[in-house]
Amino acid sequence: MPSYSNVDASVSPPRVTLPRDYNMAADLLERHVAEGRGDRIAVIDRDGRHSYGWLAERARKAASALRALGVEPEQRVALCMLDTVELPAAFLGAIALGAVPIPLNTLLTTDDYRYLLRDCRARVLVASDALVGKLEPALADLPALRAVAVAGEAGKYPRWQALVDEAPPLAAYAATTPDDIAFWLYSSGSTGKPKGAMHLHASAVQTAALYAQAILGIGPDDVVFSAAKLFFAYGLGNSLTFPFSVGATAALLADRPTPAAVMQMFATHRPTIFCGVPTLFAQLLADPALTRQERLRVSTSAGEALPRHVGERWRERVGSDILDGIGSTEMLHIFLSNLPGDIAYGTTGRPVPGYELELRGDDGHPVPDGEEGS
User: Which of 41, 125, 209, 232 is the most buried (most CB within 10 A)?
Assistant: First the structure.
Protein backbone atom coordinates (compact mmCIF):
# COMPACT_ATOMS: atom_id res chain seq x y z
CA MET A 1 0.00 0.00 0.00
CA PRO A 2 1.42 3.43 -0.93
CA SER A 3 2.15 5.88 1.87
CA TYR A 4 0.10 8.99 2.54
CA SER A 5 0.72 12.73 2.45
CA ASN A 6 1.37 14.84 5.52
CA VAL A 7 0.13 18.45 5.73
CA ASP A 8 1.63 20.75 8.35
CA ALA A 9 -1.00 23.47 8.77
CA SER A 10 0.88 25.23 11.57
CA VAL A 11 2.82 27.25 9.00
CA SER A 12 1.70 29.51 6.14
CA PRO A 13 1.61 28.32 3.47
CA PRO A 14 0.93 24.78 4.71
CA ARG A 15 3.88 22.45 4.23
CA VAL A 16 3.00 19.31 2.26
CA THR A 17 5.31 16.32 2.58
CA LEU A 18 4.90 13.43 0.16
CA PRO A 19 6.59 10.02 0.29
CA ARG A 20 8.30 8.57 -2.74
CA ASP A 21 5.75 5.73 -2.97
CA TYR A 22 2.65 7.86 -3.41
CA ASN A 23 -0.64 7.23 -5.20
CA MET A 24 -3.18 10.05 -5.19
CA ALA A 25 -6.17 7.68 -5.13
CA ALA A 26 -4.89 5.83 -2.06
CA ASP A 27 -4.30 9.13 -0.27
CA LEU A 28 -7.82 10.44 -0.99
CA LEU A 29 -9.67 7.20 -0.23
CA GLU A 30 -7.77 4.41 1.44
CA ARG A 31 -6.27 6.53 4.20
CA HIS A 32 -9.74 7.29 5.56
CA VAL A 33 -10.49 3.58 5.79
CA ALA A 34 -7.08 2.85 7.36
CA GLU A 35 -7.52 5.64 9.92
CA GLY A 36 -11.02 4.60 10.99
CA ARG A 37 -13.15 6.95 8.88
CA GLY A 38 -14.48 4.38 6.43
CA ASP A 39 -18.08 4.86 7.60
CA ARG A 40 -18.07 8.61 6.94
CA ILE A 41 -20.12 9.72 3.94
CA ALA A 42 -17.93 10.64 0.97
CA VAL A 43 -20.56 11.27 -1.71
CA ILE A 44 -24.27 11.99 -1.83
CA ASP A 45 -25.83 11.66 -5.28
CA ARG A 46 -29.19 10.85 -6.83
CA ASP A 47 -28.80 7.19 -5.85
CA GLY A 48 -28.05 7.74 -2.17
CA ARG A 49 -25.26 8.18 0.36
CA HIS A 50 -21.92 6.45 -0.18
CA SER A 51 -19.27 5.96 2.48
CA TYR A 52 -15.51 6.24 2.11
CA GLY A 53 -15.22 2.50 2.71
CA TRP A 54 -17.71 1.74 -0.06
CA LEU A 55 -16.11 4.21 -2.47
CA ALA A 56 -12.59 2.91 -1.79
CA GLU A 57 -13.71 -0.60 -2.69
CA ARG A 58 -15.73 0.67 -5.66
CA ALA A 59 -12.66 2.47 -7.02
CA ARG A 60 -10.50 -0.64 -6.66
CA LYS A 61 -13.18 -2.69 -8.43
CA ALA A 62 -13.32 -0.04 -11.18
CA ALA A 63 -9.54 -0.38 -11.51
CA SER A 64 -9.90 -4.13 -12.06
CA ALA A 65 -12.71 -3.56 -14.57
CA LEU A 66 -10.50 -1.18 -16.55
CA ARG A 67 -7.63 -3.66 -16.48
CA ALA A 68 -9.98 -6.37 -17.81
CA LEU A 69 -10.85 -4.02 -20.69
CA GLY A 70 -7.16 -3.85 -21.59
CA VAL A 71 -6.00 -0.71 -19.78
CA GLU A 72 -2.39 -0.74 -18.61
CA PRO A 73 -0.51 1.72 -16.39
CA GLU A 74 0.15 5.12 -18.00
CA GLN A 75 -2.52 4.58 -20.67
CA ARG A 76 -5.36 7.07 -20.92
CA VAL A 77 -9.01 6.47 -19.97
CA ALA A 78 -11.60 8.95 -21.22
CA LEU A 79 -14.54 9.56 -18.87
CA CYS A 80 -17.57 11.33 -20.35
CA MET A 81 -19.88 10.95 -17.38
CA LEU A 82 -22.52 12.86 -15.47
CA ASP A 83 -21.86 13.82 -11.86
CA THR A 84 -22.81 10.69 -9.96
CA VAL A 85 -20.69 8.55 -7.63
CA GLU A 86 -19.63 6.39 -10.58
CA LEU A 87 -17.48 9.24 -11.91
CA PRO A 88 -15.19 9.65 -8.86
CA ALA A 89 -15.06 5.85 -8.56
CA ALA A 90 -13.92 5.48 -12.18
CA PHE A 91 -11.58 8.48 -11.97
CA LEU A 92 -9.84 7.29 -8.80
CA GLY A 93 -9.99 3.68 -9.96
CA ALA A 94 -7.99 4.55 -13.06
CA ILE A 95 -5.44 6.38 -10.91
CA ALA A 96 -5.26 3.41 -8.51
CA LEU A 97 -4.37 1.26 -11.52
CA GLY A 98 -1.63 3.69 -12.53
CA ALA A 99 -3.60 4.74 -15.62
CA VAL A 100 -4.47 8.33 -16.53
CA PRO A 101 -8.16 9.34 -16.47
CA ILE A 102 -9.38 12.27 -18.55
CA PRO A 103 -12.80 13.69 -17.58
CA LEU A 104 -14.44 15.15 -20.68
CA ASN A 105 -16.88 18.04 -20.83
CA THR A 106 -20.38 16.57 -21.14
CA LEU A 107 -21.70 19.57 -23.10
CA LEU A 108 -19.62 19.25 -26.28
CA THR A 109 -20.48 18.33 -29.86
CA THR A 110 -19.69 15.15 -31.73
CA ASP A 111 -16.88 16.92 -33.61
CA ASP A 112 -15.41 18.09 -30.31
CA TYR A 113 -15.39 14.55 -28.96
CA ARG A 114 -13.83 13.24 -32.16
CA TYR A 115 -10.96 15.71 -31.75
CA LEU A 116 -10.44 15.03 -28.03
CA LEU A 117 -10.51 11.24 -28.33
CA ARG A 118 -8.00 11.33 -31.18
CA ASP A 119 -5.81 13.80 -29.33
CA CYS A 120 -5.63 11.89 -26.04
CA ARG A 121 -5.49 8.42 -27.64
CA ALA A 122 -7.66 6.95 -24.91
CA ARG A 123 -7.54 3.18 -24.58
CA VAL A 124 -11.03 2.96 -23.07
CA LEU A 125 -14.01 5.30 -22.98
CA VAL A 126 -16.56 5.16 -20.17
CA ALA A 127 -19.66 7.24 -20.89
CA SER A 128 -23.04 7.93 -19.30
CA ASP A 129 -25.96 6.60 -21.33
CA ALA A 130 -27.41 10.08 -21.87
CA LEU A 131 -24.26 11.07 -23.78
CA VAL A 132 -23.84 8.05 -26.07
CA GLY A 133 -25.87 9.59 -28.88
CA LYS A 134 -23.36 12.44 -29.30
CA LEU A 135 -20.32 10.26 -28.72
CA GLU A 136 -21.06 7.29 -30.95
CA PRO A 137 -20.49 9.02 -34.33
CA ALA A 138 -17.07 10.12 -33.04
CA LEU A 139 -15.88 6.59 -32.27
CA ALA A 140 -14.92 5.55 -35.81
CA ASP A 141 -11.27 5.66 -36.88
CA LEU A 142 -9.77 5.79 -33.37
CA PRO A 143 -6.88 3.29 -33.55
CA ALA A 144 -6.01 3.61 -29.85
CA LEU A 145 -9.55 2.96 -28.58
CA ARG A 146 -10.04 -0.67 -27.56
CA ALA A 147 -13.31 -0.64 -25.64
CA VAL A 148 -16.36 1.42 -24.71
CA ALA A 149 -18.48 0.89 -21.61
CA VAL A 150 -21.68 2.72 -20.75
CA ALA A 151 -23.00 3.70 -17.32
CA GLY A 152 -26.75 3.24 -17.34
CA GLU A 153 -28.71 1.72 -20.21
CA ALA A 154 -25.85 0.27 -22.20
CA GLY A 155 -27.50 -0.92 -25.42
CA LYS A 156 -24.90 -2.71 -27.53
CA TYR A 157 -22.01 -1.79 -25.21
CA PRO A 158 -20.93 -3.46 -21.97
CA ARG A 159 -22.68 -1.94 -18.95
CA TRP A 160 -20.10 -0.19 -16.79
CA GLN A 161 -21.84 -0.82 -13.47
CA ALA A 162 -22.06 -4.54 -14.23
CA LEU A 163 -18.37 -4.72 -15.13
CA VAL A 164 -17.48 -3.04 -11.85
CA ASP A 165 -19.91 -5.12 -9.80
CA GLU A 166 -18.38 -8.35 -11.12
CA ALA A 167 -14.73 -7.31 -10.85
CA PRO A 168 -12.58 -8.24 -7.84
CA PRO A 169 -11.10 -5.26 -5.96
CA LEU A 170 -7.62 -4.36 -7.17
CA ALA A 171 -5.21 -6.12 -4.83
CA ALA A 172 -2.60 -3.36 -4.72
CA TYR A 173 -2.40 0.26 -5.79
CA ALA A 174 0.03 1.02 -8.61
CA ALA A 175 3.55 1.90 -7.52
CA THR A 176 3.44 5.53 -8.59
CA THR A 177 5.36 8.56 -7.34
CA PRO A 178 4.39 12.20 -6.68
CA ASP A 179 5.96 13.19 -10.02
CA ASP A 180 4.04 10.71 -12.16
CA ILE A 181 1.16 11.89 -14.35
CA ALA A 182 -2.14 11.18 -12.54
CA PHE A 183 -4.77 12.72 -14.84
CA TRP A 184 -5.41 15.13 -17.71
CA LEU A 185 -7.89 17.97 -17.95
CA TYR A 186 -8.67 19.73 -21.21
CA SER A 187 -8.77 23.50 -21.45
CA SER A 188 -11.87 25.24 -22.78
CA GLY A 189 -10.29 25.99 -26.15
CA SER A 190 -10.78 29.75 -25.87
CA THR A 191 -7.42 30.34 -27.61
CA GLY A 192 -7.70 27.58 -30.20
CA LYS A 193 -8.21 23.84 -29.92
CA PRO A 194 -8.53 22.52 -26.34
CA LYS A 195 -5.21 21.47 -24.85
CA GLY A 196 -4.67 18.63 -22.42
CA ALA A 197 -3.12 19.83 -19.17
CA MET A 198 -1.29 17.01 -17.40
CA HIS A 199 -1.44 16.93 -13.61
CA LEU A 200 0.77 14.99 -11.24
CA HIS A 201 -0.16 12.72 -8.34
CA ALA A 202 1.19 15.49 -6.07
CA SER A 203 -0.99 18.24 -7.56
CA ALA A 204 -4.32 17.43 -5.90
CA VAL A 205 -3.12 17.41 -2.31
CA GLN A 206 -1.08 20.56 -2.93
CA THR A 207 -4.11 22.53 -4.12
CA ALA A 208 -6.25 21.04 -1.34
CA ALA A 209 -3.76 22.11 1.31
CA LEU A 210 -3.10 25.59 -0.09
CA TYR A 211 -6.67 26.60 -0.91
CA ALA A 212 -9.30 24.26 0.52
CA GLN A 213 -7.68 23.74 3.90
CA ALA A 214 -5.83 27.04 4.39
CA ILE A 215 -8.36 29.43 2.79
CA LEU A 216 -11.75 27.70 3.04
CA GLY A 217 -10.91 25.97 6.30
CA ILE A 218 -12.51 22.79 5.01
CA GLY A 219 -12.89 20.04 7.59
CA PRO A 220 -14.44 16.59 7.93
CA ASP A 221 -17.85 17.96 8.96
CA ASP A 222 -18.28 20.08 5.83
CA VAL A 223 -20.75 19.27 3.06
CA VAL A 224 -19.59 20.72 -0.26
CA PHE A 225 -21.91 21.38 -3.19
CA SER A 226 -20.40 22.61 -6.43
CA ALA A 227 -22.51 23.82 -9.34
CA ALA A 228 -19.37 23.49 -11.49
CA LYS A 229 -19.14 19.93 -12.76
CA LEU A 230 -16.38 17.41 -12.08
CA PHE A 231 -14.98 17.68 -15.62
CA PHE A 232 -13.89 21.27 -14.87
CA ALA A 233 -10.69 21.80 -12.90
CA TYR A 234 -12.72 24.04 -10.59
CA GLY A 235 -15.39 21.40 -10.05
CA LEU A 236 -12.94 18.52 -9.68
CA GLY A 237 -11.29 20.28 -6.77
CA ASN A 238 -14.57 21.39 -5.23
CA SER A 239 -16.33 18.02 -5.39
CA LEU A 240 -13.51 15.50 -5.20
CA THR A 241 -10.00 16.40 -4.17
CA PHE A 242 -10.96 19.06 -1.59
CA PRO A 243 -13.55 17.13 0.42
CA PHE A 244 -11.71 13.82 0.04
CA SER A 245 -8.51 15.39 1.36
CA VAL A 246 -10.11 15.79 4.81
CA GLY A 247 -12.87 13.18 4.86
CA ALA A 248 -15.70 15.65 4.14
CA THR A 249 -18.81 15.03 2.02
CA ALA A 250 -19.48 16.01 -1.60
CA ALA A 251 -23.08 16.45 -2.75
CA LEU A 252 -23.31 15.81 -6.51
CA LEU A 253 -25.94 17.07 -8.94
CA ALA A 254 -26.16 15.11 -12.20
CA ASP A 255 -28.52 17.59 -13.87
CA ARG A 256 -27.92 21.14 -15.01
CA PRO A 257 -27.45 23.56 -12.09
CA THR A 258 -30.52 25.69 -12.68
CA PRO A 259 -31.54 28.03 -9.84
CA ALA A 260 -34.40 25.67 -8.96
CA ALA A 261 -32.07 22.64 -8.87
CA VAL A 262 -29.50 24.51 -6.77
CA MET A 263 -32.10 25.62 -4.23
CA GLN A 264 -33.39 22.06 -4.04
CA MET A 265 -29.83 20.93 -3.23
CA PHE A 266 -29.65 23.64 -0.55
CA ALA A 267 -32.89 22.42 1.02
CA THR A 268 -32.10 18.72 0.80
CA HIS A 269 -28.40 18.56 1.66
CA ARG A 270 -27.80 21.85 3.53
CA PRO A 271 -24.23 22.41 2.30
CA THR A 272 -21.72 24.33 4.36
CA ILE A 273 -19.62 25.26 1.29
CA PHE A 274 -21.15 26.22 -2.07
CA CYS A 275 -19.07 26.68 -5.22
CA GLY A 276 -20.67 28.65 -8.02
CA VAL A 277 -20.03 31.14 -10.82
CA PRO A 278 -21.11 34.80 -11.05
CA THR A 279 -23.95 34.23 -13.50
CA LEU A 280 -25.49 31.60 -11.25
CA PHE A 281 -25.17 33.74 -8.12
CA ALA A 282 -27.01 36.54 -9.96
CA GLN A 283 -29.74 34.14 -11.14
CA LEU A 284 -30.22 32.83 -7.62
CA LEU A 285 -30.50 36.36 -6.23
CA ALA A 286 -33.15 37.14 -8.85
CA ASP A 287 -35.30 34.27 -7.58
CA PRO A 288 -37.63 35.28 -4.71
CA ALA A 289 -37.48 31.69 -3.40
CA LEU A 290 -33.86 32.15 -2.27
CA THR A 291 -33.73 32.39 1.50
CA ARG A 292 -31.07 32.73 4.17
CA GLN A 293 -28.92 29.58 4.42
CA GLU A 294 -28.10 29.03 8.06
CA ARG A 295 -25.59 26.21 7.51
CA LEU A 296 -23.80 27.81 4.56
CA ARG A 297 -20.63 29.35 5.96
CA VAL A 298 -18.81 30.31 2.75
CA SER A 299 -19.18 30.25 -1.04
CA THR A 300 -16.60 30.45 -3.80
CA SER A 301 -16.79 31.97 -7.26
CA ALA A 302 -14.54 31.60 -10.31
CA GLY A 303 -14.68 31.58 -14.09
CA GLU A 304 -15.37 35.31 -14.51
CA ALA A 305 -15.28 38.44 -12.39
CA LEU A 306 -17.88 38.60 -9.63
CA PRO A 307 -19.67 41.98 -9.72
CA ARG A 308 -19.47 43.90 -6.47
CA HIS A 309 -23.22 44.26 -6.10
CA VAL A 310 -23.73 40.49 -6.47
CA GLY A 311 -21.32 39.73 -3.65
CA GLU A 312 -22.81 42.37 -1.37
CA ARG A 313 -26.41 41.29 -2.04
CA TRP A 314 -25.50 37.63 -1.48
CA ARG A 315 -23.99 38.43 1.91
CA GLU A 316 -27.05 40.44 2.94
CA ARG A 317 -29.60 37.91 1.77
CA VAL A 318 -27.92 34.53 2.29
CA GLY A 319 -25.87 35.41 5.37
CA SER A 320 -22.35 34.48 4.28
CA ASP A 321 -19.64 35.72 1.94
CA ILE A 322 -18.49 34.71 -1.52
CA LEU A 323 -14.74 34.35 -2.01
CA ASP A 324 -14.16 35.45 -5.60
CA GLY A 325 -11.00 34.05 -7.15
CA ILE A 326 -9.27 33.01 -10.33
CA GLY A 327 -7.62 29.76 -11.35
CA SER A 328 -6.92 27.86 -14.54
CA THR A 329 -6.99 24.35 -15.93
CA GLU A 330 -3.20 24.40 -16.16
CA MET A 331 -2.80 25.45 -12.50
CA LEU A 332 -5.62 23.07 -11.42
CA HIS A 333 -7.40 25.43 -9.03
CA ILE A 334 -7.61 28.93 -7.56
CA PHE A 335 -4.35 30.80 -6.96
CA LEU A 336 -5.63 34.38 -6.59
CA SER A 337 -8.57 34.97 -4.28
CA ASN A 338 -10.40 37.10 -1.80
CA LEU A 339 -9.67 35.71 1.64
CA PRO A 340 -11.84 35.28 4.74
CA GLY A 341 -11.65 38.53 6.70
CA ASP A 342 -10.05 40.27 3.71
CA ILE A 343 -12.84 40.59 1.14
CA ALA A 344 -13.08 43.49 -1.30
CA TYR A 345 -16.03 42.82 -3.60
CA GLY A 346 -15.27 43.95 -7.14
CA THR A 347 -11.67 42.66 -6.93
CA THR A 348 -10.13 39.21 -7.40
CA GLY A 349 -8.25 39.45 -4.12
CA ARG A 350 -4.70 38.50 -3.23
CA PRO A 351 -2.31 35.67 -4.09
CA VAL A 352 -3.15 32.48 -2.22
CA PRO A 353 -0.18 31.80 0.10
CA GLY A 354 2.12 29.35 -1.63
CA TYR A 355 1.76 30.92 -5.09
CA GLU A 356 3.88 33.66 -6.63
CA LEU A 357 2.07 35.92 -9.10
CA GLU A 358 3.46 38.41 -11.57
CA LEU A 359 1.55 40.81 -13.82
CA ARG A 360 3.07 41.30 -17.27
CA GLY A 361 2.39 43.60 -20.18
CA ASP A 362 1.85 42.77 -23.85
CA ASP A 363 5.63 42.72 -24.31
CA GLY A 364 5.98 39.89 -21.78
CA HIS A 365 7.78 42.01 -19.19
CA PRO A 366 6.53 42.76 -15.65
CA VAL A 367 4.57 46.02 -15.33
CA PRO A 368 5.20 48.55 -12.52
CA ASP A 369 2.73 48.93 -9.67
CA GLY A 370 -0.33 50.90 -10.72
CA GLU A 371 -0.15 49.93 -14.41
CA GLU A 372 -2.39 47.46 -16.20
CA GLY A 373 -1.10 44.17 -17.52
CA SER A 374 -2.70 41.49 -19.65
Answer: 125
